[in-house]
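User: Could you walk me through two proteins back to back? I'd like the raw sequence and the structure tokens for each, with a short line separating them so I can tell where one ends and the next begins.

Assistant: Of course. Protein one, sequence then structure:
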Amino acid sequence: MPIDTGNTQVSLSSEDQWRWGDVKETDITPSWVGGDGIFTEGVDANDDPVLRRVFTKESRPYASPFNVIAAMMKAAGEISVAPEVVTVADETIVMRRMPEHWRNAKLDELRDPYILWAVLEQHRRVHEIMVDKVLSMSHRSILDDVSSMRDRCVASSVPLPHGIDHILKDLEPFIARVDGLREPCVPCHGDGAASNVLIDTQTEQDAPNAPLLTGWTVSGVMDPLEEAGSVLSEVGQFCGNQSSLVTGLGLDAECLRPAQAFSIINDVYWSLIGLWRSATSENAAVDFAKYGLWRLVKARNQLCTPIGPGKWLKEL
């Protein structure tokens, strides 16, 4: 399903008759709600509810290129994986706002097998989107991202816990062999956080509405094992069989160990982002550092848990 990102570049001058309310609150802990933009609810000229997302300069060092995010969101909206995109222009995306009984999921709600497997299926469907301009423009690598963000922290004199380099040291056997363990790159949402899932709290049991994916900050073309790692980081701790999460994303069960290693790397990456944002953010009221340190704790725990990749890493 080729998508021309040029079709989304619509002037926002038609907003003259739109009405906007207050900016939605940012809530970084325990997830990352609102951390990558300014969100404002409103209605369009026909009184249909819309949600405006303005990307801020603070997210640019780790977010995918804006035109890639817009193309991914538009393509996903057209196959009911994400809310419909209305207009895109000037670092701003306006999408259809879901009814009030739709909201961001909470982590414990992903314990529900229906919700969890439906979320995995939506992620898998994104892999099948053929977005021409995305495929040619944006290939993400979380290893490159970690290196870049660590360098940015050092350049900005951000104090880094020693645990970050210790964890990366433990991952060196994997990093040295990663090219032989990768899967072919595909379009991915890229972030398995529960807050990036919209659920319908009034869905009918006999005909439930599938959850939708939101966020899309790190979306683009990547190794799907990296996305699997993000999913494992979020829900792997309460899923009895972690390989089922990997197969739910359309990957082979044998991919579990590399996905677990990417899960730890994903936690390190978001730890660095949280610590960097804490030191550089203009909004001192948001506790980015607490989020960054929490992700670092998660990374350590994944190395130590008996079902984690610790033994496998030593045997590589």
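----
Protein two, same layout:
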Amino acid sequence: MTWIPVKEELPEFGICVLVALKSGLMTVAYLKDINGKKAWQLYGPIQDYFDLKTEAVTDWQYLPKPPKQK
């Protein structure tokens, strides 16, 4: 999998993806529509720790497929 810069392409709304933040941290997030504007929503409890106005998403990539169950 490769990183996709947000300036080049964005994922579909509601699809969880791995995102790289300006600070160098990574987390899972999804893109949503708020009153006609695109906005990132961090997934899970980590969302309480980041202000996406300063922690801008720079790149994203699809999550890997889960392992096959035996």
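The radius of gyration is 13 Å.

Let me know if you want the two compared in more detail.
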